[in-house]
Amino acid sequence: MNNAILMSSGADNIDFMIHGIFSYEIFGHTVWITTSHVCILIVLLLMLGLAIAANRTMKHAKEIPEGFQNVLEIMVEKLDAMVYGTMGKVAAPKFVNYISTIFVFILMSNISGLFGLRPPTADYGTTLALGLITFALIHITQFKNLPPKQIWKDMCSPLPPWLPIWFPINLISEIAVPISLSLRMFANVLSGTVMMALVYGLLGKIAIIWPAALHVYFDLFSGAIQTYVFCMLTMTYISQNYETE
């Protein structure tokens, strides 16, 4: 596999940059397939494998769960509890599948550095796409559940709707949502990726065992925190567009 994809392939090959693997022409423009695309594909294939294994396990589910079935049920229960506890009984059933999917995808992407991959979430193109999807869901939900008068009132808040002085500021704050969501996760994951690349690059062959402690922090702890923060903010923004819970 390309050394730009695997970040731990040797002291002389440590690289945290995004590289093009191959390109093709489409409508007169050159489109590159990069290491980020390959890493995303690997994560998606792992998710697909997990989904197939889960489906087969649950088809032969036992009344008293054990092994992999027990792990699956715990995962589903915890994700359901997180979504229902944040979004309430009205909104949660509509978004629990989406939130659970992006939670698993982001978490697996963030911890992929443990296996030598460059985390897909260390590419701003990945996190921005996730932020834009959340942004679209926020406003689709808003227009479906709130009357136009309420939307206008919220955009003019805290002043009355007939005095829209705060409208430009509130509009900027709405536009900033996908940017802040994407930049927060991108910057945290990229900083961990750069730090680990520097550690392996500077220490070379002696960086064998003790960097595991850094992986625990940058990949597991920080990756899990960023996953939770992104999903919690997504649920909070969406659930604000429901008048009743």
Please tell me about this protein's structure:
This is ATP synthase subunit a. Keywords: ATP synthesis, Cell membrane, CF(0), Hydrogen ion transport, Ion transport, Membrane, Transmembrane, Transmembrane helix, Transport. Key component of the proton channel; it plays a direct role in the translocation of protons across the membrane. By secondary structure, the protein is mostly helical. It has a domain at 74-239. It has 6 helices and 2 strands; from the N terminus they run ββαααααα. A two-stranded antiparallel ribbon has the order 1-2. Strand 1 and strand 2 (29-34) form a beta hairpin. The longest helix is centred in the middle third of the chain and has 43 residues, at 68-110. The protein is globular.
Tally of helical runs: 6
C-alpha geometry = globular
Could you give the distance between the termini? Answer: 50 Å
Q: Quick check: average pLDDT? A: 84
- What strand order characterises the main sheet? 1-2
Roughly how much helix do the residues carry, as a percent range?
A: 55-70%
| Uncertain residue segments | none
In sequence order, what are the helices and strands, one letter per element? EEHHHHHH
Count of strand segments = 2
**Structural class category:** mainly alpha
Strand content is 5-15%
Largest sheet: 2 strands, antiparallel
User: What integer value in Å does the Rg equal?
Assistant: 21 Å
Pfam families: ATP-synt_A
Subcellular location: Cell membrane; Membrane
Keywords: ATP synthesis, Cell membrane, CF(0), Hydrogen ion transport, Ion transport, Membrane, Transmembrane, Transmembrane helix, Transport
Transmembrane segments: 31-54, 95-115, 161-179, 185-204, 216-238
